[in-house]
Design brief:
The chain is an alpha/beta fold and 346 residues long. Helix content is 35%, strand content 18%. The protein has two domains: 193 residues, no CATH class; 148 residues, no CATH class. Helix 4 runs antiparallel to helix 5 and helix 5 runs antiparallel to helix 7. It is globular and about 75 Å long.
Length: 346
């Protein structure tokens, strides 16, 4: 629905193995009742940035762009890098289209495909690219896909799903090429590119860890979150809320939490929301070298205890960990105090 006060939202576009951040203004009406929509652009191309910090820096520069006259751009000028982080629903991965189309027509794949095709249509409209518009909006299989009432179930649905797959195989490469021609990549994207799923956590800047206690093994996620706008300084944080750490005994439960929970400190990480698209729960299993045994004193365990005590705001005597030979009773007392901050989720 068109609104005269439609907000400007941050989105990411993934095209030919590069993911960039930009701004999109959904349809809004000007004072004359005329409808508009647009992207952050330079008058000729859509601008894409490798991080929220670089996008924020561009906005702060005051440089004129295609959204400068938008009624909501004043709010964008006040936005922090945290405010410019897209939600999990605002990622548009053009490279994944072939894979989604080759899978079963379940609601997740159909919705993902529809969102991407719809966004490509909006790029065509905003850039006045008639060829791209005809390719997407003028193709029955694509037009049907973005129809909210479409179903790919049953015999007829399966036939339409197959036809859509054939259409994608025949035309999507051309569509991606047209979209690419309208993009201007600003900054260094070499540090944000990744191809293998195994590098996902490295990109996010966090890792699942295992905490071994005398009676149970817990799973959680630890990361380094920025404490300034530039992201130069960081502090260790964990999933959880209100100075508590969310812990799990099951990988699947940890995976679900990482995909869906919103109110935790690691949401500040630049690419955290990409975990919502990680469809393999085993990606959330801690690596062999990410296990911390707190059943007895150790240098490795002491490092984790300090981080947990600091994160939870405990008034704990962590100085006992500095001794070359840590007293076992002091160790157990500190583990018990830190454990009081654990919030089991499953």
């Amino acid at each position: 629905m068109t609104s005269p006060h439609a907000p400007i939202v941050p989105i990411t576009l993934t095209v030919n193995d590069r993911t960039g951040l930009t701004l999109y203004a959904p349809p809004w009406e000007d004072e004359d009742g005329e409808e508009w929509q647009g992207f952050l652009g330079d008058g000729a191309k859509i601008l894409l940035f490798p991080s929220t910090a670089e996008l924020a820096s561009f906005i702060a520069s005051g440089e004129e762009n295609d959204l400068s006259d938008h009624p909501g751009y004043g709010q964008v000028l006040k936005a922090t890098p945290d405010d410019l982080r897209p939600t999990s629903d605002d990622h548009y991965d053009l490279d994944q289209v072939y894979e989604w189309a080759g899978d079963e027509p379940d609601p997740v794949h159909v919705s993902a495909l529809a969102n991407v095709v719809d966004m490509v249509g909006r790029i065509a409209d905003c850039c006045d690219d008639g060829a791209l518009r005809r390719l997407v909006e003028g193709t029955p299989a694509y037009a049907e896909l973005v129809d909210e009432d479409v179903s790919y179930q049953g015999r007829d649905g399966r036939r339409r799903w197959t036809e859509l797959g054939d259409t994608i195989a025949d035309s999507w490469e051309r569509a991606v090429g047209r979209v690419e021609s309208w993009l201007r990549w600003e900054g260094d994207f070499t540090t944000t590119e990744f191809d293998e799923e195994e590098s996902l956590w490295e990109r996010v800047g966090a890792e699942p860890i295992r905490i071994v206690l005398p009676d149970v093994e817990y799973l959680t996620v630890r990361g380094a979150v920025p404490i300034d706008a530039e992201g130069d300084d960081t502090e260790v944080a964990f999933v959880g809320t209100d100075d508590s750490v969310a812990v799990f005994t099951d990988v699947d439960a940890l995976a679900l939490y990482c995909r869906t929970a919103k109110n935790h400190r690691l949401m500040k990480l630049e690419w955290w929301t990409e975990l919502a698209d990680a469809d393999d729960d085993q990606l959330f299993a801690p690596a062999d070298d990410a296990s911390y045994d707190l059943r007895k004193p150790s240098t490795r365990g002491a490092e984790l205890l300090r981080e947990l005590a600091d994160f939870c705001g405990l008034d704990a005597d962590t100085d006992v960990l500095d001794s070359p030979s840590i007293d076992r009773d002091d160790w157990n007392d500190l583990v018990t105090e830190v454990r009081s901050c654990f919030q089991p989720q499953d």
